[in-house]
Amino acid sequence: MSGAVGQAPAAGVPSVRRSRDVPMLVERARAGDPRAVARLITLVESGDEALPQVAAALAPYAGQAQVVGLTGSPGVGKSTTTNELVRALRARGHRVGVLAIDPSSPFTGGAILGDRVRMQDHATDPGVYIRSMSSRGHLGGLSAATPQAVRVLEGAGCDVVLVETVGVGQAEVEVASLADTTLVLLAPGMGDAIQAVKAGILEIADVFVVNKADRDGVDATVRDIQGMIALGERGPGEWRPQVVRSIASRGEGIDDIAAAIDKHRDWLDKHDELRRRRETRAAAEIEAIALGVLRARIGSLRDGTELSTLAAKVAEGSLDPYAAADELLAQLRS
Prior knowledge:
The chain is α/β, with parallel strands linked by helices and 334 residues long. 44% of the residues lie in helices and 12% in strands. It has helices spanning 22-30, 34-46, 51-58, 78-91, 146-155, 192-199, 218-231, 254-270, 273-302, 306-316, 321-333; strands at 66-72, 96-102, 128-134, 160-164, 181-186, 207-210, 242-245. The protein has a 7-stranded parallel beta sheet with strand order 3-2-4-1-5-6-7, with helices on both faces. Helix 4 crosses helix 8 (254-270). It starts with 21 loop residues before the first helix and ends with a helix.
């Protein structure tokens, strides 16, 4: 199910490149057709009018994949670690999906880095689907379409979905609300331990990965992270973040990372935390969709006279902004 290379469609099989036949696309995606998966994610990213139909068709497959998020500052080796994790997961026989969120071009809105270029080892593997997604200015290190793209990969039969964030530093904590397990990558000599304190990353990390462990200062970095973990307040039975060393460029420590992910998954299952996290994720999705609809309706009001009339009243002081907002909401409800 490679996202970079796919087989040509068989004779007589309809093309999926521009299709909006959602049942056919989902059926083909379930069968492992990378073009169908790509088309579904494109519909999701573009906010196509068929999106509600896509969501309805994928709903029965929700929650069937383990979602692992990888975040950290630029240069810590997120893409290399993701690449090696894919290799380890494939060795276990898992089907793997990768969503690599890249910075977006200010001119075209497209992804700049294209992480698939750095994961060409898996380009021809039918059990791997890799998709670069543009952040399109969305804060938090993800694309606004990422949750629905995860659902597409779940529907396509992926056992594990790896979500690699954009790599912007202290603001990218949104992945924790999407992932079952969040990996925070750090590297010696980059001031990452201090950055973790500033960013509050201690609260989102389920596993700390100190990558590039062949560098000087790795022991100090590990001690700093362990010291911060020790300062955290935890109740009985609460998860204590693991700290793992790796040299992803050599494939070293990847099995330890996979073992830490497994240990966290076992804890999630034992404490019913997996269900809670996924319900929280679903609530965030519902809220985002509802807010999107409201914004669209407010935008349509801008084309009329009601909002302009209210704005004029607020500007001249004959109406306060809260009362104006109440009137605007009444318009939305009508």
